[in-house]
Amino acid sequence: MNVLFVLGTRPEAIKLCPVVQFLRKDPSRFLPRVCVTAQHRQMLDQVLEVFGITPDHDLNLMRPGQTLSSTAARVVEGLAPVLEQEKPDLVVVQGDTTTTFAGALAGFYHRIPVAHVEAGLRTGDIYQPFPEEMNRLLTTRLSALHFAATEWAADNLRKDGVDEERIAVTGNTGIDAVLYVAERLEKGLEQAPAWPQLDPGRKLIVVTAHRRENFGAGMLNLAAALRELARRTDVQIVYPVHPNPSVTGPIRQALSGADNILLIEPLTYVPFVDLMRRSYFLLTDSGGVQEEAPSLGKPVLVLRNKTERPEAVEAGTVKLVGTDTAVILDHARQLLEDGAIYRRMSRVHNPYGDGRSSERISSLIYSFHLKNKS
Ligand code: UD1
Ligand code: UDP
Description:
Number of helices: 15
Radius of gyration: 20 Å
Largest sheet: 7 strands, parallel
Helix content: 40-55%
Distance between the termini: 14 Å
Strand order of the largest sheet: 3-2-1-4-5-6-7
Bound molecules: uridine-diphosphate-N-acetylglucosamine, uridine-5'-diphosphate
Number of strands: 13
Strand content: 15-25%
Order of helices and strands: EHEHEHEHEHEHEHEHEHEHEHEHEHHH
């Protein structure tokens, strides 16, 4: 079975590389091929390197400050010759980025079935997150196979009218990735950075933020909250800054030189997992970090008003705090000062997967192929 993986950004790579690796273990059944759009360049390459994956095709699309429209158009156009050359039995896309949606559209235009990994996430608001919620809805319409991480996501697909036989609950492949790296760090098989700047006597707060709906006021409110938090002598803040110019510009302007806030470049995956393990809690608007942190037993304050990942919120280990400075500070202080609240939020649990999602997806993909051939 010739399976073409199409991926473009850091989270897609983190969540699809474990599946590519799994298919590679079984060459008698699978010929996995990888096409990167390189919607992200540096952050994508960082992940491919960790998983030892060299793409078979590289569209090298990233442009500084790219727009949604131009990226989408270039992905569809760039994939056409690749699909014609590869003639895959299945195209696999993951998540809700421009590459995900445009990759699924390109597959459809070539009448190739598309499998969607991490299907069925919904907030119910097409502008939160923007444009990801619409990308999810459109990718669902374009796909033949839907791999939902949880029962809740599968239910969303059923409500959208997707045939039951095309839906499978597999867990999230991002949990395969994070548990794999965490175990290797635990066993000393991966080298964690030394972090001489970190003081083990202080509580580490790790921050990431990049959502389009938080550009402008949201980012500035976050910066104000971080400045205030950083005045405490019992904490230290590490913030790997997303390279989108709409993030780096305002954040570096607001926080460069601030005492007790370490602004750094995006970390490669192994050091970032290590940093999450060392953290006291995380402040983030990232989808992937919301999923990984509960598996590591780390509380998360989510810089959003709505989430498409309600399971950990319901379990009480992730809280939605939005981007109001006072509200962020209030919740951060509770975690730092109230032991009972902290203990409740730092319970290890795995609502999004058990580390075996890639294995399940591989066998489902092959069954689909056999059925299609017969
Ligand atoms: C994209 C996805 C978002 C996902 C996020 C993960 C879309 C519309 N957005 O947002 O869903 O959550 O990735 O991080 O698909 N840049 C670099 N180097 C990199 C990556 C990005 O310099 O390695 C800069 C470039 O100037 C680029 C800009 O960031 O033009 C924006 O990248 P883009 O992929 O369009 O949007 P993200 O905000 O990264
Ligand atoms: N991540 C990373 N280095 C960093 C920050 C995040 O490797 O400096 C990882 C993180 O562990 C998670 C993924 O990147 O697996 C999340 O990506 P991002 O927040 O960019 O996108 P989202 O998940 O919001 O789509």
